[in-house]
Amino acid sequence: MVEAGAVAAAVAVGLNRTLDVRPVELGWAIFYLVLNLAVALFMFTVAVRLWRNGVRRHAVGVFVATALGAFVAVIYDFFPIPGDDADHTLFYILALSVWALMLVTYYHGYRALGERTRGASSDGFALAAAEGSGAVSESRTVRRV
Known about the structure:
Keywords: Membrane, Transmembrane, Transmembrane helix. By secondary structure, this protein is mostly helical. The protein has one domain (about 25-135). The chain is built from five helices and no strands. The longest helix has 30 residues, at about 90-120. The protein is globular and about 50 Å long.
């Protein structure tokens, strides 16, 4: 339910900002930054879980991508890139590159974490489907982290 509320709020704010184009006020900039830092805090905990589960390469990737994402969030409103044009072309080149890195890194990090917490299957989704269909009869104990 919380996720649905967060998505609905994000859609409402996004539509408001899209339909009513104006410079971002300081209050909104701080709001966006606080939300980004809250998500960054959550993703840092995901990185710690990956590290503790022995998936250190993905943990470092998630940590670096999250730190870069927070950096991008800060520079847009508070520390503009010197020499950037009115359309923020340099910023968007940097931001889109970092966001692409975040998407790929988070995907692989979550997948690795899922494999570690579901069992030794190379495909955690296949294991869950097999257990759901009754093809796997042995019971497994899953360690929650």
